[in-house]
Structures are given as C-alpha cells and as structure tokens.
C-alpha cells in the first residue's frame, strides 16, 4: 500500500521554485542575503533538497542568469516580430519600456544587474548575450543611431532596476517615438 503522506516529487518544479525564490529574495534585498536557509524558509523545501539541485549559491546564480538570458532572448525575438523589423536595439528599447511594469521581469533583471556588477563572469555573460542578440555580433560596428538607441535602452534598464526615476509611460513612449525617427 502506498503511503498517502509521501510527497510527490517533481524535480523541475522544485528547481524552478528555488530559482524564482532566489530571484525574489535577491531583488528585494541584495544577492548576499540569498541563502539556502532563506530559500528553504520561504519555500518549505529542505536545505538538502535545495543542495540536491544546486551545489552552492554560485551554481544557483549562474543558472538564474543563464535562464534569464534565454527568457530575455525569447522576449526580444517576439518584440522584433511585433515591430515588423529586425532592428534589435529598437526591439530592446521597446522591450525594456514595456516590461518595466512587469514585477517578475524587474526582479530577474535586478538580480542579473547585481550579478554583473559584482562578478566578472556574469558581466561577460551579459556582454556576450548583448553582443550576439542586440549588437549583431559587434557593438563597435553598429551604426551611430543604433548605438544611441542602445544606450538609451540601457539607461532605462538601469534606472528601472535601481528605481532611480519615475518617468511616466507617456513620456517613455514619446522618447521611443523620437528615437524611432533616427532610423
């Protein structure tokens, strides 16, 4: 007879729960406050269960950044399709502005930002992703208008993730419309 109290195992769901909880803790505090104990307390999983999926915090952060970049790639591809063009810096800018009100996106991007600021490995991952998906292989070879758009998008991205300014949605759209005139 099967034990009715035995927990059903779903390793992928547990792994995703761990990643989501780590992002949530890291975004509301800072990455140094993300501990296996804090994740266990918030999820109800055991520390041993967390260690089963991630040997250490660095492995957890690496997976979170990797997974976030995959998700970001999917979003950018969709944004380029919706624009009807292949101008990645504009797609990135529109994506950053559209997603600025999405708490899940902001939480994940804040963790990536923190990771990139304190660890060269994550800064390199971000640079490689950006070069491939936004700059088309080389930031130096982008035309000046695309570089301007890229820098404005970065400014929005940093400002949103650091909660620096409170720019209205209508002002953001006006900025995008002005930048679209560059192309």
TrEMBL record:
DNA-binding region: 35-54
InterPro entries per record: Homeodomain-like_sf, HTH_TetR, Tet_transcr_reg_TetR-rel_C_sf, TetR_CgmR_C
Annotated signal sequence range: none
Pfam families according to UniProt: TetR_C_28 (PF17937), TetR_N (PF00440)
Domain HTH tetR-type: 12-72
Keyword DNA damage: no
Keyword DNA-binding on entry: yes
Keywords (A to Z) from UniProt: DNA-binding
Protein name (database record): TetR family transcriptional regulator
Naturally occurring in which organism (per UniProt): Pedobacter gandavensis
